[in-house]
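Box S2. Input/output pair 1.
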Amino acid sequence: MKKLDIIVKYADLNRFSLAYVLSILEHYAASRRTVRRIVLTRDVLREIECSDADLMIIMYSLMTPQIFEEDLVKELKEVDLARKKRDKSIILIAGGPHASGDPTGTLLKLGFDIAVLREGEITIPRLLDSILGYDDLSNVPNIVYRDGDRVVKTYDYVPPRIIGSAPFSRTFKIYAPIEIMRGCTHACKYCQTPRISMFKIRYREIDEVRRYCEHYAKSGIKIIRFLAPNGFAYGSDGRRPRPDKIEKLLRTCKQIGDIKLVLGAFPSEVRPDFVTREVMEVVVKYVHNRKIAIGAQSGSDRLLRYIGRGHDVACVYEAVDLCIEYGFQPCVDFIFGLPGETEEDVEKTVKVMIDLARRGCIIRGHTFMPLPGTPFENEPPGKVHPKYLEALREIERMRRLEGYWKEQEHIAEKIHRYLQENKCIT
């Protein structure tokens, strides 16, 4: 029997997504004796050099900003050299938002053999089976792979429900926020999430969420965060909130005992149109967090329509007022340099940001980044207008400012150059 090692690249930024991947791998290894060991490491090259496995599968989870990190770029080049020196087989697999958005570039520019496009619970076990010879690679859903000089894409498949992979790794003791929702029905042109999920939304069953909460509590984790693209959308059609469903979820989990639930703050920010009085009446009774993260993105109704947000500025004010009324501090996100942004849009957004800061809101600034796989992937990188900088200085003096817009402005330029260069090879 061949000796198989699965090596997973660890990065702090990917810690929580890796918890889900490791859970899938641990379950797979328990059912397949061919998997000798699963290794989680920061130093992939060292594991390659030390391993005596007949076959090594090396897995990375990638977000687009990570592909410009010097250490990662250097490591991938060294890994490629190392596997050319070895007689034993090494297969490189990439998943995560970048692999989903730019699978061809992930193969041809970054040097991976296979890119996983969507959720791993279905794809990863079948992919491993095909690598081990139990099935043909072309039968595995949601992947792109190299076949000689060809790049082959298999069929898309999004299961009708979230397949129950645990949000934690038993082996490596990584406990991620508990995913309660997957996907999005909205079509914001800068966002990868709805496209990865093919605009379908699914929810984790309450009994399953409760079991994970119980496990976390027994493991000594008392503050439990929920993961969702829209924290107040649980159980809904993705367009209108269902406060009854939210209450059932929160009430059921709180019955466990001495735990504190976090919903509506990182990593489950909310859309402003889902902040209703009925929802706030429920949330205020159960959640531990005293901040609510609201995605406004712009203070211009024209620009909100253009980018496909599906709400207006008045909706943002209504959401903020409700949060404050119920004793929460709103943290409101804005994106600078969005495609199509005019001088008038900037002025309107500046006015809204300063107004909200004076009301006590935290303003969290971002710079537009043209992410692969989105309608805006070929748009110019975002630039922070001087009027934004002036407003941000004023908001900072109020001690109401957060965000990484400076770093994102530089990353946006790198992403834009990368995607334009990519056109030449795809």
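Box S3. Input/output pair 2.
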Amino acid sequence: MKAIPLVRVSQILPIVDFLNQIGSPTDRLLEQINLKRAALDHPENLLSLYQGAELIENAANLEGLQTLGFLIGRQTPIHTLGTLGKILNNCLTLFDLLITMEQLVRLENSGEHASLQWENDSVWWQFHYDFPAHSSSLQVNLYALGLYLSALRVALGATWRPTEIHLQGQPCRSLRAIDDFADTTIHFLSPYNAIKIPRAALSLPYNPLATGDDLNLHPDYEEYWQSAPASTFFDSLQQLVQALLPYGCPDISLVAAASGLSVRSLQRHLTETELTYSKLIDQVRFNRAVALLQQPNVKLLEVALELGYTDPANFARAFKRWAGVSPREYRLLQR
């Protein structure tokens, strides 16, 4: 079973900001995908890629904008995308940027695959997403296309246009009408998305003031790597549940939908690991509680709220059931 594709909140924020700018009913759109606005308060937290895709697809349909995803991505400077943006802003050249993105993309979005492909005097920046065959990923593909074009133009110039691109999915006529692709050959129905870049452009400066330090030496890299989306189904399921807990204990139908599964399929996968849904919730809550209780500055009330308990007494009773001692006693014992 593949991991549930998860994406950082920092990738969703430009979508929400753009919708607010154009006066779209953002709260209603978030409600449609069962996402609380408060879930967007922490850019490095993880959300379901399926929820993010549904948000932008619903918004495009509501606003009647077939190219909405591209318009959002095009106006988003990549250096504004949370920790990813900070790390990428330390790239010296366009080549440095592309190979760094190639290494980081799975730490940002476990549902995305990206790579640099070489072809004679050109290179191709290829990317695609893990989506069920029956679902639409047009707006996600267009959003990524806009983001990558925005990043490339930092080195290639604000008016640079690719000579050729590939896009997955059905033809999007509105995209051909955009000035960004006035001289571009667009191949639809491709097995992947790709942007053609002149090979000679790879040495162009991206950020001349960057230090160009090794990726592992960046001060934010270790924490970024530690908090990355999991690569296995069960671990990614735990990450998804943990992300949803602060907004109330999520019911199984919400978690199943965010996982891209039916309730029955999710239950079957849990049974294979000898778990029930309630046991999964307890497991995630306990592990998170232990991590928070080891931080002396975090108050017990904050721990309870983080785990989805509105009454700290309920949290205390649950924790004693799990560990045999109260949260306060556990914290004292750890000291």
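Caption for Box S3: Residues 244 and 250 are 6 Å apart (CA to CA). The domain at 233-334 is CATH 1.10.10.60 (Arc Repressor Mutant, subunit A).
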